[in-house]
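Go through the following before class.
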Amino acid sequence: MQPPRPKHESTSSAQSGYHRSQSVKDAALAHRIQLHYLPPYSPNLNPIERLWKLMNEQIRNNVVFQSAQDFRERLALFFTQTILKIKWLSRH
C-alpha cells in the first residue's frame, strides 16, 4: 500500500518570464503543484548560482585561456575531478 499523496507539491523557481508564464501556471495547477518564486535577485537561494561561483573561483578567475578548447578542458576537469575533491573535503 502506498502512503497517502500530499494535497499538492511545491517548487520554487526564479523570476524569469518563462517561469511565470501562464502555460507554466496552468500546468502546475493541473498537476497540483504550488509555485513559489525566489526574490528578484537572490543568488544565495539558488543552488546553481553557488555552483557557478565555485566554478569561477576554481577555474576562471584571473585566467586567460589560449583557446576555447583549453576552456572546455578546464571545465571538464572541474566537473569530473575538482568538484568531487571539494565535495569530499566538505564531508571531513
In short: The two ends are 39 Å apart (CA to CA). The chain has two domains: 9-43, 46-90.
